[in-house]
Amino acid sequence: MRNEKNSFLSKQTLSPYILVLLSTKNSLSKALSSFYPFAGRYRIDTHSVNCGDQGAEFVQAKVDIRLDDLVSQRMNVKAELLNDLVPCPMGVIDGYDDPLLAVQVNAFSCGGFAITVCTSHRIADMQSVMSFVSAWAIATKQELGYVDENYQPILPNFDSGSLFPGKMLPCIPAGLGREKENFELYKIVTKMFYFDKSKISSIRERARLDDSSLLPSKVQSISGLIGKAIIDVHVANPENPNTYTIIQAVNIRKRTVLPLPDNQFGNLYILSSFQSAVGPERVASLATLVNYLSKSVKGVVDACATVLLLEIISNLFE
Fold it and tell me: PANTHER family in the record, alphabetically (predicted)?
């Protein structure tokens, strides 16, 4: 029998790179134990999640530039380059065997880190994803000793399916399919727009109707500005269809009667939209577009109050 000297490495002896990798990887497993649908696989035939603990994808990468070199470029950074920082191309989380969650930990040469997350919109909206990210962050801090290990984040509610039973309807087509991963082949263009605080304030002033004393929201003002730019292109080119639709997603949590909590897991939103025709002699102003969008959103917000009650009543008579 041979005696060997065992060596135990403490967290203090690990390099920051290894320490962050180990902490984020271990904490990801802990977070997934609470958000277990992200570790399953989506079944398109039954519109359900097979929670067989198939796992999420964890990718680690080293980036040979400084983090501030990337951040300082702001709107001048090529969005295509950002794809190297994400764990999978767009559309590659929708196959039968694809994970519903993929994360990538990027270590920059300066010692900074950037963590990216890809999820399937089939099972979770942004509110649900951010709840998961928050729980993962807390678990990571616990791994590093920055948060009391006995502290527990608010766990998600998974009873959305009983509140809003599936109707087996076809999914709304959104995003890109797996066959369109090649940006150059399909001439896919991505743009990044940056608006500072003063510019947003100016846009909100321009987006306000003359007879209104209220400023429109930031989201609706910027959406209207981008929408108008696209509409103006259509007007200038008669060969393009002279109709437009502007859509905004509205979170229904806390807007229903009985209010749903922020930790309600799933796709809990309603799309507000309006559509109109334009032409060379009928061009809507920015204020008009934003006003239409604001009214549409308000109508959806008002409808949120009854959507849960109507669903409950409908289920009683089925």
Answer: F21J9.9 (PTHR31623), VINORINE SYNTHASE-RELATED (PTHR31623:SF124)
Those residues with Cβ within 8 angstroms of residue 47's Cβ, 6 or more apart along the chain or in another chain? 166, 168, 171
Residue-wise pLDDT for 88-100, tens only, equals 876 565 667 789 9
Confidence grade of residue 44 (pLDDT, cut at 50, 70, 90): confident
pLDDT score at 132: 96
Which segments of the chain does DSSP mark as H helices, in order?
16-34, 67-71, 79-82, 126-144, 160-163, 197-206, 218-236, 286-316
Tokens 């390099």, residue?
A: 15
Buried b (16+ CB within 10 A) or exposed e, 175-194: eeeeeebebeeeeeeeeeee
Indicate yes or no: pTM above 0.70.
Answer: yes
Residue 56: CB atoms within 10 A of its CB come to 21
CA gap 258, 306 in Å, rounded? 9
- Give the range with max mean pLDDT: 31-35, 88-92, 117-121, 146-150: 31-35
